[in-house]
Amino acid sequence: MTLTQLKNSVDIVHIAQELGLQPDKNGKCLCPFHKDKKPSLQFSQKKQIATCFSGNCKAGTMDVIELVKKFYSWELPEAVKWLTPKANGYSITDITKPIVEDYEIIYKKLAAGFNTGKEYDKLKYCIVFPLRSEKGHIVSLYGRSIYDNAKCKHYYTTNRKGLYPNYPNPETKQLIITESIIDAATLKQYFNLSSETTILTAYGTNGLTPEHFKAILYLQQLEEITLWFDGDKAGNSATAKYAKELKELVPNIRISKVEMIENEDINSLLDSHETEILQHLFEKRRIIHQTTAEKEISKTPIQPKKTAKQSYTLNIQPNHTIYKDESLKIDVFGKLDLKDLSRLKMTLVVYKAANLTQTPSRNTIDLYHDDAVEKLVRKIAEKLQIGTSVVRNVLDKITRGLETHRLEKQNELPQQKLRYKLRDINDADKNKTVALLQSKSLIETLTKQLQATGIIGEEKNALFLFTILLSHKMNRTLHAVVQGTSGSGKSHLIGKIADSMYDQNKIKRFTRVTDKSFYNYGEQDLCNCGIILEDYDGLTEEAELAWRELQSNGKLSSSVSQKNEQTGEITTGEKYVFGPIASLVATTHFRIYEDNESRVFVIAIDESEAQTEKVLEYMANKAAKMVTDDQELAARKAIQDIVYMLKPYKVKNPYRLQLPKTTKQRRRLTQMLHDYIEQITLLHQYQRQKVDDTMLVTELKDIEIAIDLMFNSIILKTDELDGILRQFYENLKKYVESKGKDYQFTRREIRQKFRISKTQMQRYITELEELEYIHKSSSGLRNSYNYKISYWDNIEKFRTAIRKHLYDQIEDYKKKSN
């Protein structure tokens, strides 16, 4: 089924209704992609498009596929998979048919295909790749299973032989060796390869075969081998092993490695980053073994440098470098960029040494851009009537000299110091922490330790927020908003949670965020960071947008103006800030913009009298030195040790939970529920079954703990009233009920009873009136009013029903397992 067939087989208005949008009879509804008070999203059933006409929205005009992609922040394959079962006249099996309209036919580029098993049962339901002989013939096959629950992911035909994607080109100068065939296939699609660069795959971390070594020995022009393996323990070990073996095999070849982000592989990187990350990592690759010639060069000074055939000088100054030999004199203008080592942009003024009065060739060029350099070589050679080989060699000498000088200067720069010094954890503390992580009382002990850091009450909320912020270390991060009135202890709570993280350099705390501040970070500055916003209320719309993008997409991308320091020319460039991030935010707002709220868990601070008494008692104990700062510090260090010992894993959850159909934003909240269950599984990683040492398996106990901790957040997302307002309304109902359900009350009366400010009271009354929970019953003196409760809901009954709905599903799973 093509994309056009898919679009023609669904109705955009019906799909919008499935997404929870409610177009009116004129086809208009509130736009979910920006703060929309007046319906601005217009649907056209005739054209099968949706257009937002608000000047504040960037959604523009969308077909049905684009609508689903934007709504769920999905890529194309996810949106297509979701829409396909809803298409009229097509079955679910059509998903396996290629959608090729307007897209490159990938199977032709990779020589890969999908095997349904009808004709070849050996690699059933696998993406199949051919392994080729030296002559290019297909001699065996590799299959990658598409099923998550498959017993094995990798299959080969009997007597595996051949290489993927093929034997390297004999003219190869740069050889990249990946860990897997899937990695090689990804690089072929998304990585810019020069004509002299070839990709070759190993068959796993133990998969460099004699056939690989034989192929490498045939490459007479080979200059460098780059090992590009996964960033996990196995990948790093394999890199060290093969670097040593290759050095013995080809001692005169440079060996380098691409340093991957911890526990990431090439494909997982593309789940959270743009494809530019691959080029960035490759350009930052590290040399493991130099050739003998390179070692000699590094020992000798750059200036002056002589060879048997020709002598030359290269005088490098901060902004003006002079090169001179028998053939050419070149002035190189420009300041060396010590931060961005991926570029070497300079201005060259080239003279013929025999005729310095001749008009020179003037050009600005990035010396790391091979194609541009080759064009410049021909241009200079033609203008100055000199051989291209002479010009090419001179530019190579200048480039090598400048980059060596730049590396020396960079090493002289003061190294950036960590803001917070990481404390050492000795073996005794590690053993003690592992024993705790293996203990069945882990949750109870961790709850007590959090209280001992100075968090008073809020036991479940504290542990809930701790596990959310802990996700900053993991592959899938989480976010939470803490609601409460001024002075209720919101900032204190999230501050104590933040203090409990091990690496405080990865925890960034802000009381204020300007419009563009998030965009001005370096590419990796926010990667796997936990961010604390002590006052969300002050965020501008621009800052909110950046915050939302970091939460949803794990990155910020912006088009920026850049000034060339040499020429003053203003050009447009791209800037990226990569995540992912985890976050905790405090707010006094009743209502949070729906598009922001849908991405986060929401909890409400306990503002009851009982909680107030607990806080006051703790203050008294601290004043009496019954609780000391040293005791709080010891508890904090114990929790930091737990954070230190926990590592990221993939998680397999074989259980499916369903929220009640009345739940708002049911799809997204269900996904958040499963994400949080994954986080609880990670907390118990020392107690859970592991698959291939890379994946944890969720147990029913994890689901029970997750539901118990996030239950209040589920209720808040389901309840019409937010957390602060719900607490006030429940107290109001108790007060009125004690005097009779028909009792009429005034604002002043309630304000004095609950000791709240006039402004806060105004917000409560206005909100409850708008939602029709209370109404004005009569007028009093001086334009005052009496109020009565209109709607006596039963929140406890509501809570009990949802809790029963969830735990009944767990009990069903327990019965099936028995």
In short, what is this structure?
The protein is α/β, with parallel strands linked by helices.
**First-to-last CA distance:** 44 Å
Shape: globular
Number of H/I helices:
27
Instruction: Kindly report the spatial arrangement of strands forming the biggest sheet.
Output: 14-15-16-17-18-19
Low-confidence stretches: 89-105, 299-309
> How many DSSP-defined strands?
32
Radius of gyration using CA atoms only: 32 Å
Compute the average pLDDT.
85
The main β sheet shows up as: 6 strands, antiparallel
Secondary structure category: alpha/beta
* Residue share in helix: 25-40%
Explain how this protein is built.
The chain has 818 residues and is an alpha/beta fold. Helices cover 40% and strands 19% of the residues. It has 27 helices and 32 strands. The strands form eight sheets. It has a six-stranded antiparallel beta sheet with strand order 14-15-16-17-18-19, with helices on one face. The chain has a five-stranded mixed beta sheet with strand order 10-9-11-12-13. The chain has a five-stranded parallel beta sheet with strand order 21-22-25-20-26. Helix 14 crosses helix 21. The longest helix is centred in the middle third of the chain and has 25 residues, at 388-412. It starts with a helix and ends with a helix. Mean pLDDT is 85; it is low at 89-105 and 299-309.
Name the features.
6-stranded antiparallel β-sheet, 818 residues, 27 helices, alpha/beta
Q: Mind sketching the topology for me?
A:
Elements: H1 3-8, H2 12-18, E1 28-29, E2 41-44, E3 49-52, E4 61-62, H3 64-72, H4 76-83, H5 106-110, E5 113-115, E6 126-132, E7 138-145, E8 154-156, E9 174-178, H6 181-190, E10 197-201, H7 210-217, E11 224-228, H8 233-249, E12 254-257, H9 266-272, H10 276-283, E13 286-289, H11 292-299, E14 305-306, E15 311-315, E16 320-324, E17 328-333, E18 345-352, E19 361-366, H12 370-384, H13 388-412, H14 427-437, H15 442-452, H16 459-470, E20 479-483, H17 490-499, E21 507-510, E22 529-533, H18 541-553, E23 555-563, E24 570-578, E25 581-587, H19 594-597, E26 601-604, H20 609-623, H21 629-645, E27 650-652, H22 666-683, E28 690-691, E29 695-697, H23 700-718, H24 723-739, E30 745-746, H25 747-754, H26 758-770, E31 774-779, E32 785-789, H27 795-817
Parallel strand pairs: 9-10, 9-11, 11-12, 20-25, 20-26, 21-22, 22-25, 27-29
Antiparallel strand pairs: 1-2, 2-3, 3-4, 5-6, 6-7, 7-8, 12-13, 14-15, 15-16, 16-17, 17-18, 18-19, 23-24, 28-29, 30-32, 31-32
